[in-house]
Design a protein that fits this description.
heterodimer, A: alpha/beta, Rossmann fold, Alpha-Beta Plaits, 6-stranded mixed sheet, B: mainly alpha, globular
């Protein structure tokens, strides 16, 4: 295996999947819906790959195929060079899945009891199991609530336990299906930090993350894959796709007298003149606290906020830049 | 084995969180036994022709029948019920992603129900021994445990087929209809098979529950039975050897089909 191949943990080639669509009338023939069409993909080791796509794009189908919960109709999938047909339990143990399904726990048991049970299915027992569960609870930030029954958990706590369950298995590859979708903004920030520092940094793992949140992809992705209606429409490194990922948020600020362009630049804003007394200001979403910056411009700089154009959302991005028929 | 203990522990904790249900279950077990006791008291003599071989005690006859009947509902309904519950709840996918075999997961999921059935069965036998005053040797206890173990395996095999149906069709289960209904009606649990019309008796012979009940009664109620229970033992063993692998195979097919259709968590 050469060095290039060694960098790729998971490789997909020509993976397709279609389903019979459920319909109300049992006497009519069920139409076939193509969920994925000839998906080619390489997931590099120890990187975050973000699969972006709107609802119904086929993201969950793809992630479940990778987790061996759905069998593809055709195509080749290789984990570390091993074809899917030859995957055994040792490969299965290397793949962890975090879904948004908060029901997939035992509600009468505590968080810790749930993890001890699932951990035992990873051939862990005794002190090793307890230590692994404690570590997972700490890393996912739910240690203090571990002995509360799961049914009393908030949505955010349930999602953290979902992540902790994957950590217990200590997989190489984390498949995360919209894991931050139920988290509040603060918890989302913590979660993103957890991915980069704990999963990628400390554990040296590989992350394949499904999302429809452009901001999440911008913050985390080393590689971005855009899936639309079962087809990969774009893929590449984040830098390569930055032109596709929607513009940064922009402000239009009006100033009395001379506009303080130099002062604005010092505060990390990209500035271009629009007309006399009015500046167009571009913010870098990754590098600044936007709300704080706008407050500074208005309160300290004496600006009047005339217009604010937020970042594109994914649907807008697909419609404006990718879908040829839009 | 360690994984199986984890399943038992999980379900025990769940049960303990529903203590009132536990008390009610025990209460209904006692009420059921009292029900049989008073029916026996009322009709004891009218069954004497059929019950002569078993010491003319309707209560003892039905109590031993009930001791094996617990496996019918567990085998047929628990395994498939657990599959359905795991599908609806979404835990099935969470379990199948772990490096544990699908068969172990499905069996482990219903293991606690079988433990409960076994304890219930032993409770019925204990009542029979204590109240009726049966004199039982260690050899007889060993023989009864062997029969119970084989009955468990028979119904576990049927349960696997039943679970395979549920995994694919979600609802509607011919195995439960065929073996569940017929076991209660034709299995000779609360009345002797001999009271049935002859052609129906022949059908009842092929039900594992009939053989299990007959064997337990022969061992405990017929002194010096001279190995009358051995054919029943042979039947249960052959049934397990034939139906068991079929159950494994069908469950494997059902799982593969559910993965192909992407319907593991559909309900």
């Amino acid at each position: 295996m050469d060095q290039q191949e060694n960098k790729i943990l998971l490789a997909l080639s020509g993976v397709s999947k279609s389903f019979k669509e459920p319909i109300g009338n049992p006497f009519r023939k069920r139409p076939i819906k193509r969920a994925l069409t000839a998906v080619d993909l390489e997931i590099p080791r120890n990187k975050v790959s973000c699969l972006l796509g709107p609802n119904g794009a086929g993201k969950t189908t793809l992630i479940k195929i990778l987790a061996s919960l759905i069998t593809p109709d055709s195509g080749d999938i290789r984990y570390d060079g091993i074809p899917r047909e030859r995957w055994d339990r040792s490969i299965q143990a290397k793949i962890g899945l975090v879904t948004q399904n908060e029901r997939a726990f035992y509600w009468r048991l505590t968080g810790r009891q749930n993890l001890l049970f699932f951990g035992s299915l990873y051939d862990l027992a005794g002190k090793a199991l307890k230590a692994r569960v404690d570590e997972a609870l700490s890393e996912s930030g739910i240690f203090d609530s571990a002995d509360k029954p799961y049914r009393l958990y908030s949505t955010g706590m349930k999602q953290k336990l979902n992540i902790a369950r994957a950590l217990v298995g200590n997989p190489e590859l984390y498949l995360l299906d919209e894991p931050a979708s139920h988290l509040d903004p603060l918890a989302r920030e913590d979660f993103w930090e957890f991915i980069t520092k704990t999963l990628i940094g400390k554990r040296g793992a590989t992350v394949f993350l499904c999302t429809h949140d452009l901001e999440e992809a911008r913050r985390l992705a080393d590689q971005v894959i855009i899936l639309d209606r079962g087809l990969i429409v774009e893929k590449g490194r984040l830098g390569e796709l930055r032109h596709l990922m929607g513009g940064n948020p922009e402000l239009e600020l009006r100033f009395e007298g001379q506009a303080p362009a130099a002062w604005l630049r010092r505060h990390g804003a990209g500035v271009s003149a629009r007309d006399k007394g009015c500046l167009r200001v571009t913010l870098d979403p990754a590098g600044t606290d936007q709300e704080e910056l706008i407050r500074t411009f208005v309160l300290e700089g004496g600006a009047l906020l005339e217009a604010f154009r937020p970042q594109d959302d994914l649907l807008e991005l697909l419609n404006r830049r990718i879908r040829p028929d839009a | 084995m360690r994984k199986m203990l984890s399943f038992i522990k999980r379900d025990f904790y769940e049960l303990m969180s529903y203590r009132f249900r536990l008390i009610l279950n025990f209460g209904s077990l006692i009420v059921g036994i009292l029900f049989l006791f008073f029916i026996g008291k009322t009709f004891n003599n009218s069954f004497s022709e059929y019950l002569a071989r078993y010491g003319n005690s309707y209560f003892a006859f039905t109590l031993l029948g009930m001791s094996v009947s617990t496996f019918v509902s567990t085998g047929l309904y628990s395994l498939s019920g657990q599959v359905r519950e795991a599908q609806v709840q979404g835990t099935l996918e969470a379990l199948l992603i772990t490096p544990t075999s699908a068969n172990a997961i499905l069996f482990g999921n219903s293991l606690w129900s079988f433990v409960e059935s076994f304890l219930e069965s032993v409770f019925y036998l204990g009542i029979a021994i204590l109240i009726i005053g049966l004199k039982v040797s260690i050899a007889q206890v060993a023989m009864v445990l062997l029969i119970l173990a084989l009955t468990f395996l028979c119904f576990l095999s049927l349960g696997m087929i039943s679970a395979a149906f549920i995994m694919v069709f979600k609802r509607g289960n011919p195995i439960n209809f065929i073996f569940g209904t017929s076991s209660y009606l034709l299995g000779g649990l609360v009345f002797p098979v001999e009271v049935l019309p002859l052609p129906v008796q022949k059908i009842s012979f092929f039900l594992p529950i009939t053989q299990a009940a007959k064997a337990v009664r022969e061992i405990l109620l017929v002194p010096g039975n001279g190995g009358e229970w051995l054919p029943a033992l042979g039947f249960l063993a052959i049934f397990t050897l034939v139906v068991g692998p079929a159950g494994f195979y069908l469950l494997k097919l059902a799982l593969a089909r559910a993965k192909m259709e992407g319907s593991l968590v559909q309900f």
